[in-house]
From TrEMBL:
Similarity remark: Belongs to the SLC26A/SulP transporter (TC 2.A.53) family.
Entry's transmembrane regions: 62-79, 85-104, 116-136, 167-186, 207-226, 238-256, 261-283, 303-329
Catalyzed reactions: sulfate(in) = sulfate(out); hydrogencarbonate(in) = hydrogencarbonate(out); bromide(in) = bromide(out); iodide(out) = iodide(in)
Any GO CC annotation of this UniProt entry: recycling endosome membrane
Protein name per Swiss-Prot or TrEMBL: Anion exchange transporter
GO molecular function: chloride channel activity; chloride:bicarbonate antiporter activity
Annotated organism of origin: Phascolarctos cinereus
GO biological process: carboxylic acid transmembrane transport; iodide transport; oxalate transport; sulfate transmembrane transport
Record membrane topology: Multi-pass membrane protein
Keyword field: Anion exchange, Cell membrane, Endosome, Ion transport, Membrane, Transmembrane, Transmembrane helix, Transport
Lineage: Eukaryota, Metazoa, Chordata, Craniata, Vertebrata
One Pfam family hit: STAS
């Protein structure tokens, strides 16, 4: 084991830093970690892990290479010593990868039809170890094997603090990268299962999960995409599933661990590489970013390049700095919608509907760019305004007393003050989002806009977009797969109001026809 890795194993991944970040409430700063930056950084980190397994996949003897541009030095060494590739290890690696990918794809295709998913990783480990033992591959073909694995768990000891100064800088980077990878999976799960994530609490959880293992010289831990996907497929909902997994791992450590002496390293490397498939296929996001926002595409590519050229923490820092710089430049050039224009718009709408009251219609104007900086606040303000109206169950007379236009910006929330009255169940609430002031957007902003549309749809609220630019229409349709929902876009607010009244009249006509 290289000296640097031994230091990491002894010192953990600086969990004290994560706990300190929790105490300082630095979790609120994670909004700077945009989806393109996280995706590029995790993809680059996965690329580094795959690169570290190349020597085992090819059966080559290779010196420990690290530092800036180490990624390229490794592949340069491989091509310079291509004749030293061990054919047996290469063939066994290819066979293992093919089997793993094929079985995992079949499990994914038929997971709803079969009750028990085949644990192909465990089966491959047992089969490869047994074959290597019977054929004596370690000596016959010169294959590297895992070797002796200590029984059980080592006795707890305090981490050696005398080496802290040697690893504190890189350990801090490992802690940050592990946290970001875990947070990305947590946010993905939250979006899928409709719950919220406290970014600051994740710092505490991630730090504590590495404090106790540091006394047993454990490798730094973080969330795994493969294990998370496995929990999805089995329908797990609580931490009991993780407890069962831990018990099974403990059984393997005590009972099966010593039997893995004959496991070929090339097979183990193949399992690691295939396990990173979920992160590596994030390259497909490039097409999505290109169609939505080419600047986000550029940030993704540059962050990935910096990650593989230097390190994951360097790439992450570069991505955050680039994102902030882009937003600053965009905000300096942004145009906003003034309050005077909003009043004129309100009068124009009321005139064009020929004096008819805007019943249960809320007109909301975005007068700021919709990007990752204000996306969460926009979504929260919009949902609060809608839920407040639904909770009040206002009558049409009460709604006439409300201010129909709501300005949503970084300093004020849209509100509607009126007296509550009896419910008006036959009317359907509608929201018209005036996008005149939406001068630019990014992928996170468009995702939030699509999420708001889906949330309104789930609450039986019509969600209409008015005065959208062609680029915004294309981005919303592409990001949210709304090609079939083109009726949500209108050229003006008055056109949207007219469509609402037309639908209402058609609905009333249909009700009378049924009677």
């Amino acid at each position: 084991m290289p000296a640097r890795m031994e230091l990491y194993q002894r010192s953990g991944n600086d969990p004290e830093a994560e706990i300190a970040m929790f105490v300082l409430h630095l979790g609120s700063a994670t909004f700077l970690l945009t989806e393109p930056v996280i995706s590029a950084m995790t993809t680059g980190a996965a690329t580094h892990v795959v690169t570290s397994q190349v020597k085992y996949l090819l059966g080559m003897k290779m010196p420990y290479i690290s530092g800036p541009l180490g990624f390229f030095y490794i592949y340069a060494y491989v091509f310079e010593n291509i004749k030293s590739v061990q054919l047996e290890a290469l063939l066994l690696s290819l066979l293992s990868i093919v089997v793993l990918v094929l079985v995992k794809e079949l499990n994914e295709q038929f997971k709803r039809k079969i009750k028990v998913v085949l644990p192909v990783d465990l089966v491959l480990i047992i089969a490869a170890s047994f074959a290597c033992y019977c054929a004596n591959m370690e000596y016959t073909y010169g294959l590297d094997v895992v070797g002796h694995i200590p029984d059980g768990i080592p006795s707890p000891r305090a981490p050696p603090m005398n080496i802290l100064s040697e690893v504190v800088t890189e350990a801090f980077g490992v802690a940050l990268v592990g946290y970001v990878a875990s947070l990305a999976l947590a946010q993905g799960s939250a979006k899928k299962f409709k719950y919220s994530v406290d970014d600051n609490q994740e710092f505490l959880a991630h730090g504590l999960s590495n404090v106790i293992p540091s006394f047993f010289f454990c490798i730094p831990s973080a969330a795994a995409m493969g294990r998370t996907a496995g929990l999805y497929s089995t329908g797990s909902k609580t931490q009991v599933a993780c407890l069962i997994s831990c018990i099974l791992v403990l059984i393997v450590i005590y009972a099966i661990g010593p039997l893995l002496y004959w496991l070929p390293m090339c097979v183990l490397a193949s399992i690691i590489v295939v396990g990173l498939k979920g992160m590596l296929i994030q390259f497909r996001d490039l097409k999505k970013y290109w169609n939505v926002d080419k600047i986000d595409w550029s940030i993704w590519v540059s962050t990935y390049i910096f990650t593989i050229c230097f390190a994951a923490n360097v790439g992450l820092l570069f991505g955050v700095v680039c994102t902030i710089a882009v937003v600053i430049v965009r905000f300096q050039r942004a145009k906003t919608l003034s309050l005077k224009n909003m009043k004129e718009l309100e009068n124009k709408v009321k005139t064009e509907v020929e004096g008819e009251n805007l019943q249960l219609v809320k007109i909301i104007s975005i007068n700021n760019p919709l990007v990752f900086l204000n996306a969460k606040k926009f979504h929260a303000d919009l949902m609060n305004a809608i839920q407040k109206d639904n909770a009040n169950n206002q009558t049409p007379d009460d709604i006439n007393k409300c201010e129909q236009n709501v300005l949503l910006n970084s300093t004020s929330n849209g509100t509607c003050n009126g007296e509550t009255s009896q419910p008006y169940p036959n009317e359907k609430c509608s929201v018209i989002l005036d996008c005149t002031g939406l001068t630019f957007f990014d992928y996170t902003g468009v995702s939030t806009l699509v999420q708001a549309y889906m949330d309104c749809k789930g609450q039986n609220v019509d969600f209409l977009l008015a005065n959208c630019t062609a680029s915004l229409k294309k981005a919303v349709q592409y990001c949210g797969h709304l090609e079939s929902d083109k009726h949500i876009f209108f050229e003006s607010v008055s056109a949207a109001v007219g469509a609402i009244h037309l639908n209402k009249n058609l609905s009333k006509f249909s009700d009378h026809s049924e009677v």
